[in-house]
């Protein structure tokens, strides 16, 4: 029985130590990891703010943001770095996680800086996707074409 109590005391002491160490870290900073299948944009870089498009609505993330898990919708993620410089990156889909230690992970299916988007190519892709949607013969084809239309519409908006 004494060894069980000793083990419990050690466990409580360890949890208190871990909590104290976590509290000692500055949550006034926000470390961003932002990656896609095609590129890593940020790897634990301290930034000022991240604005994301999600299916539950677009929202901004600052240090000390409430922990959150959301699904990204097609659109532009804006990262404001500590020096005020902004990076705008188009994402097709993915997830956003905000942790209680103020770290943020953006994991995108595909992502490209806005300056790499070609508006004419996006408009052409939108026309093709709309054509495929109107001629889709089954539910799967309709769903795939609808997704392609949504992504292409957002690329056209972002590239404008």
Task: Explain this structure.
This protein has 160 residues and is α+β, with helices and mostly antiparallel strands. The chain has 2 domains: 26-115, ATP Synthase, domain 1 (Sandwich); 118-159. The protein has 3 helices and 9 strands. It has helices spanning 2-24, 119-135, 139-159; strands at 30-36, 39-52, 59-61, 68-72, 75-81, 86-91, 94-98, 104-108, 111-113. Strands 1, 2, 3, 4, 5, 6, 7, 8 and 9 form a 9-stranded mixed β-sheet that branches. Strand 7 and strand 8 (104-108) form a beta hairpin. Helix 2 packs antiparallel against helix 3. The longest helix has 23 residues, at 2-24. It is elongated and about 50 Å long. The model is unreliable at 16-25 (pLDDT under 50). Residues 117-158 form the F1F0-ATP synthase delta subunit C-terminal domain. Belongs to the ATPase epsilon chain family. GO terms for molecular function: proton-transporting ATP synthase activity, rotational mechanism.
């Amino acid at each position: 029985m004494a060894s069980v109590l000793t083990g419990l005391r050690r466990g409580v002491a360890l949890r208190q130590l871990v909590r104290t160490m976590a509290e000692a870290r500055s949550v006034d900073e926000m470390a961003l990891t932002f990656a896609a299948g095609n590129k890593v944009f940020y790897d634990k870089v301290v930034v000022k703010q991240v604005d994301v498009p999600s299916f539950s609505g677009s929202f901004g993330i600052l240090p000390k943001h409430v922990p959150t898990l959301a699904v990204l919708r097609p659109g532009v993620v804006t990262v404001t770095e500590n020096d005020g410089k902004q990076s705008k990156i188009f994402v097709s889909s993915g997830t956003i996680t905000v942790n209680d230690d103020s770290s943020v992970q953006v994991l995108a299916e595909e992502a490209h800086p806005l300056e790499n988007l070609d508006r004419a190519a996006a408009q052409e892709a939108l026309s093709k996707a709309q054509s495929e949607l109107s001629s889709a013969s089954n539910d799967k084809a309709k769903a795939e074409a609808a997704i392609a239309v949504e992504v292409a519409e957002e690329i056209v908006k972002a590239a404008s």
